[in-house]
From TrEMBL:
Keywords: Membrane, Transmembrane, Transmembrane helix. One of its GO terms (biological process) is type IV pilus assembly. The keyword Transmembrane helix applies. It comes from Pseudomonas saponiphila. InterPro entries: N_methyl_site, PilE-like, Pilin-like. This is Type IV pilus assembly protein PilE.
Amino acid sequence: MRRSNQGFTLIEIMIVIAIIGLVLTLSLPSITEHLKKPHRSEIAALLTEQAQQLERHFSKAGVYSNAPDLSAGNDYYSIAPTLTDTGFSLTASPKADTLMAGDKCGSFSIDQTGATSVSGQAEGLTAKDCWGR
């Protein structure tokens, strides 16, 4: 009487592993993009909030330059404020060695007029694409 072997051969297992690797390789950029998008929205909201805080200060003091301390950013972006008596600019740059380092939107900026911009973005992207406005 002949015994039948049950189970998978080494070739079958290697083919399955290769298919899984291929699927992961193709889907990883999409997954990473989905992880980055909320962080872009978060920093855009934080910059807008700080701009509003500076406007409230300006309406009371008449200048931007002596505004109280602003947030330094979050885990993924650092914020650098530039304050003068009559204007301001807030720029959020991705921190090195984080998920957002080298992000396609680069750095986010907002000024006292409410104008938003990005710098260092991938070719073809606009501030509207990155700020979501």
